[in-house]
Specification:
heterodimer, B: alpha+beta, 5 strands
Chain lengths: 437, 157
């Protein structure tokens, strides 16, 4: 395994996901090392803390710290859950990890089970990626046949069973407690916290939930050491990270780079701007992250701290690139519709507020905006933020605030002139869809 | 009535969870039932409820909450197009427009011959492959330019 790009770059080609290929690349050596050297669970957690690995699902919570919250002496069942319910617009990295390197996730989850004393795990896989779910099930079968899963793993006395759970189309299930409700066979409605999953999780038992990429990082940290992982990134932001680049670039896709890589380098890796057009704005961390205009994002490095300082968030590493053909009102309208559609309906501020946000942005986009609408939007966001059980409310409000902060003039133009600042035919050309027809 | 094969598949799903947590298999059971029957009728949901020892209402709650379940009949091929922002920047909305024009139907409508139903989808987690569409919940189609869409429609007999 190379020092850089250990999650995706090492695994290429149609067969790379198979157990034999993974083992050939050095797979399952971390698990074997733990078993052969009888490494105590607390040492694994300590190594993770040293690595500064932070949750790759979007929140960036330190993984080692999260694992240390699990009550080690708790009698009875405890669970490890992987969140592969990737549905935040712009994010498509976990699909590629599971497509090319499922055993790395499985190994990470087994190690998690060992470190936290859990005998069972579930990987919750996004509904729309059926073929990836089937592949993961096949990878699990391979691992069971090789005694890497099940009773008495490799003769160690440690037992761990892992299963895949297939989602069926609900963005909210990416929220960890909604995900647990969903595994329990219910509507995916988030739970009030506390209690946190580490004390009351799946079936009311202590549970730790991590993102796919987080688990995939664990074997490397055990093999190479936490210090080395930290060195791959920058202080407080350990390791490499997958960035999903979508939108107006020449080569959309996933790119695994060191934390702290300057944004212009990532843009160049994605082939630069489509047809050489001018960059207008970037949503740096999935649809919930506030948009940043060109002059700010071009100065950013890709790590939790730099993007936060610029007023946005690194989130899941989903970089949505928009060029000069983009109507920012239409862009926000689509995102607001998404949150309106996906609100679970449990909390009034979110259920009603997301509807308000969508309807007001919609009327501005359609030439029916009123001068007071921008203040109205800000007031609705204030009435949502911090007043809901889960973060979906904030996630719906933050893009509105970001667009109004940096592209207010475009919204005002829409309201005054009842049309887009960017002509329709320019917008139409931007998508690149009609070049063939 | 669900086939023996479907019930067997559902039982395999039940086995994934602790013995006293059969309800955990409800999402998979509904997906299996829908794959066999094309959509979920009240009778089908009642059968799933009975098989899992759940109240029919609890099954209906699940079926109506998740977007990929169909509680009304759909065409032989259900095509769901992602029109969310990252896809739209690369032609998702235009691809949907193209499909609407080709099929002569709007979103949530079925062609008169019962062959196609068109749906607007939310993020499928494949934004780098835009335009993206999903056929019958299981087949994801990537980079769907007009030529690829024509080919897909031709394949759906």
């Amino acid at each position: 395994m190379g020092a850089l790009g250990f999650i995706l770059d090492a695994a290429e080609g149609e067969r790379s996901w198979r157990l034999a290929e993974y083992v050939r690349r050095g797979g399952y050596t971390a698990l074997k090392k733990i078993i052969n050297e009888n490494i105590p669970p607390e040492n694994i957690v300590a190594e993770l803390k040293k690595s500064s690995l932070r949750g790759r699902g979007g929140a960036g919570f330190p993984t080692g710290l999260k694992w240390s919250f699990m009550p080690r002496q708790f009698p009875g069942a405890k669970y490890v859950v992987c969140n592969s319910d990737e549905g935040e617009p712009g994010t498509f990295k976990d699909r590629d990890i599971l497509r090319w390197n499922p055993h790395m996730v499985i190994e990470g989850m087994i190690i998690a089970g060992y470190a936290m004393g859990c005998a069972r795990g579930y990987n919750y896989i996004h509904g729309e990626i059926w073929d990836i779910y089937k592949r993961f099930e096949e990878a699990l079968e391979e691992a069971r046949a090789a005694q890497l899963l099940g009773d008495n793993i490799l003769g160690s006395g440690f037992s761990f069973e892992l299963q895949a759970h297939h989602g069926y189309g609900a963005y909210i299930c990416g929220e960890e407690t909604a995900l647990l409700e969903s595994i329990e066979g219910k509507k995916g409605q988030p739970r009030f916290k506390p209690p946190f999953p580490a004390s009351f999780g799946l079936y009311g038992k202590p549970t730790t939930i991590n993102n796919t990429e987080t688990f995939a990082s664990v074997p490397w940290i055990i093999n190479e050491g936490g210090d080395k992982f930290l060195e791959l990134g920058k202080p407080n932001n350990g390791g490499t990270k997958l960035f999903s680049v979508s939108g107006h670039v020449n080569r959309p896709g996933n790119f695994e780079v060191s934390m702290g890589t300057p944004f212009p380098e990532l843009l160049a890796m994605a082939g630069g701007m489509r047809d050489g057009r001018k960059l207008k704005g970037v949503i740096p961390g999935g649809s919930s992250a506030p948009v940043l205009p060109t002059e700010i994002i071009m100065e950013c490095t890709l790590d939790y701290d730099s993007i936060a300082k610029a007023g946005s968030m690194l989130g899941s590493g989903a970089v949505i690139v928009m060029d000069e053909t983009t109507c920012m009102v239409k862009a926000l309208e689509r995102l607001s519709y998404f949150y309106f559609e996906e609100s679970c309906g449990q909390c009034t501020p979110c259920r009603e507020g997301t509807g308000w946000l969508y309807r007001v942005v919609h009327r501005i986009e359609h030439g029916e905006g009123r001068p007071e609408d921008l203040d109205l939007l800000n007031s609705v966001t204030e009435n949502i933020m911090g007043r809901t059980i889960c973060a979906l409310g904030d996630a719906a409000a933050m893009p509105v605030r970001g667009f109004l902060k940096h592209f207010k003039a475009e919204f005002e133009y829409h309201i005054q002139n009842r049309k887009c600042l960017v002509p329709e035919d320019v917008q139409r050309a931007g998508s690149g869809f009609f070049k063939v027809a | 009535m669900l086939s023996q094969e479907s019930l067997k598949q559902i039982d395999r799903e039940i086995a994934k969870y602790p013995a006293e947590q059969k309800q955990s298999a409800v999402m998979a059971a509904l997906a299996i039932a829908q794959m066999e029957q094309g959509w979920l009728s009240t009778e089908t949901m009642a059968e799933v409820a009975n098989h899992l020892g759940m109240a029919p209402m609890a099954v209906y709650e699940v079926a109506s909450f998740y977007n990929m379940y169909d509680l009304a009949p759909v065409g032989k091929y259900k095509i769901t197009v992602c029109t969310n922002l990252p896809c739209a920047l690369s032609g998702g909305v235009h691809a949907a427009d193209y499909l609407k024009q080709k099929l002569g139907v709007g979103f949530n409508e079925t062609t008169p011959d019962g062959r196609f139903t068109l749906k607007e989808g939310e993020c499928m987690g494949a934004c780098g492959d835009a335009p993206v569409m999903l056929v019958n919940n299981v087949r994801m189609c990537s980079f769907m330019q007009p030529e690829q869409i024509d080919r897909l429609l031709g394949e759906c007999k």
